[in-house]
């Protein structure tokens, strides 16, 4: 790692899906990059490209470790905090360790960036909106950063993820007001791209894997639930540009593509694009996630604030993303085959 770089970026949770793409994008911008990850859900293999770069280093560490994190934050000019438990499947089953993991991590990171006056960005999630769909005159509109949140009860564990992420936002904003730290919050909406894995409930990699292996493509519920998928390259661009924008500090921004697709339609697209003979099978939600689970029917980000700040928002279309992901998955299964 060289020391000439003016920008030294620390990414917590950087061996995960989003963090590994962020690391590569920051290296391309000429930044020095340190990734800290305890590899609970992340993989060092995600960092294969970054690891060969002279301005990159990886530290396997829990971000709640105050003593070992302090020098890393001290050396950094900006911190992207992504370390978290993630995914509907992980959030669906009660686990105090998941909740405490996030609370300890945010507590430590905010104390350290306050002490060292390091710029901070919190990766939050569309899950903080819970079941809020902005309905006006019977019309569904998009979710704005200041839309009221609506959550299910605390005995439905799935809501813990949204609750914890909201607490992380509250704490970040409180430090911004009390301590004057430079902090921005991004709410990410269903990010998709290479390296995302299906095990934690991520729908696109799961459907692609099922389709390519000729297994039933399993749609939970009736498939009418809709999501807006955002391409990782677009999302990472917005995260980096918001960090550079002084007016973004103390603010929350939705980052997402605003075009929704139903999960059933998604399954049909993946079946068609893979040329798979897999059946599409509807699986009752209770079978997949147990009886105490609630799904969310629709979430569309309102990206006006992001567009106003940056002049753009994620727009890469779903079909283009699916084609890239299917090609990548095919290469993993048949590394020497070429698709014409
Ligand atoms: N993937 C999405 O669509 C999405 C949507 C909204 C928000 N987010 C947010 O983006 C961030 C990254 O998500 P992702 O999809 O890349 O998930 P991911 O699971 O791939 O990455 C999270 C990383 O955090 C690491 N980690 C967890 N706890 C840690 C700790 N205590 N110390 C060190 N490392 C720790 C994990 O090992 C993993 O590498 C998360 O904060 C998540 O809430 C993701």
Could you give the topology of this structure?
Layout (H helix, E strand, L loop, with lengths): L7 E5 L4 H12 L3 E6 L10 H4 L4 E5 L5 H9 L3 E4 L6 H5 L3 H21 L2 E7 L8 E3 L2 E3 L17 H21 L3 E6 L2 E2 L10 H10 L4 E4 L5 E3 L1 E2 H13 L7 E4 L4 E3 H12 L5 E4 L1 H5 L14 H7 L7 H16 L7
Parallel strand pairs: 1-2, 1-4, 2-3, 4-5, 5-8, 8-13, 9-12, 10-15
Antiparallel strand pairs: 6-7, 11-14
The chain binds nicotinamide-adenine-dinucleotide.
Notes on the structure:
By secondary structure, this protein is α/β, with parallel strands linked by helices. The chain has a domain at 8-192 and 232-257 and 300-316: NAD(P)-binding Rossmann-like Domain (Rossmann fold, 3-Layer(aba) Sandwich). The chain is 40% helix and 18% strand. The strands form five sheets. Strands 3-2-1-4-5-8-13 form a seven-stranded parallel sheet, sandwiched between helices. A two-stranded antiparallel ribbon has the order 6-7. Strands 9-12 form a two-stranded parallel ribbon. Nicotinamide-adenine-dinucleotide (NAD) is lined by residues 12-13, 15-19, 36-42, 62-64, 82-84, 86, 101, 105, 123, 125, 188, 190-191.
């Amino acid at each position: 790692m060289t020391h000439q770089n003016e920008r030294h970026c620390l990414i917590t949770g950087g061996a995960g899906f989003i963090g590994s793409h962020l690391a590569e994008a920051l290296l391309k911008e000429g930044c020095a990059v340190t990734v800290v990850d305890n590899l609970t859900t992340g993989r060092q293999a995600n960092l294969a490209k970054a690891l060969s770069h002279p301005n990159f280093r990886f530290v396997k560490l829990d971000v709640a470790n105050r003593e070992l994190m302090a020098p890393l934050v001290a050396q950094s000019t900006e911190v992207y905090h992504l370390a978290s438990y993630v995914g509907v499947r992980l959030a669906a089953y009660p686990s105090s360790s998941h909740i405490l993991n996030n609370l300890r991590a945010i507590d430590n990171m905010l104390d350290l960036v306050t002490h060292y006056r390091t710029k901070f960005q919190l990766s939050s999630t569309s899950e903080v909106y819970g079941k809020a769909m902005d309905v006006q005159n019977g019309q569904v509109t998009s979710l704005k950063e200041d839309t009221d949140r609506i959550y299910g009860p605390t005995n439905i564990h799935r809501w813990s993820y949204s609750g914890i992420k909201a607490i992380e936002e509250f704490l970040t904003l409180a430090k911004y007001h009390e301590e004057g730290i430079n902090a921005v919050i991004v709410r990410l909406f269903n990010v998709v791209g290479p390296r995302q894995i299906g095990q934690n409930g991520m729908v696109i990699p799961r459907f692609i894997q099922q389709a390519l292996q000729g297994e039933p493509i399993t749609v939970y519920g009736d498939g009418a639930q809709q999501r807006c998928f955002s391409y990782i390259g677009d999302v990472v661009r917005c995260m980096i540009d918001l960090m550079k924008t002084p007016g973004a500090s103390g603010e929350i921004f939705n980052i997402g593509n605003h075009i929704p697709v139903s999960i059933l339609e998604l399954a049909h697209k993946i079946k068609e694009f893979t040329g798979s003979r897999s059946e599409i099978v509807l699986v009752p939600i209770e079978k997949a996630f147990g009886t105490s689970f609630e799904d969310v029917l629709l979430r569309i980000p309102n990206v006006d604030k992001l567009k106003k700040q940056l002049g753009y928002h994620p727009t890469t279309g779903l079909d283009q993303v699916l084609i890239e992901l299917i090609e990548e998955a095919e290469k993993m299964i048949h590394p020497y085959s070429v698709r014409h």
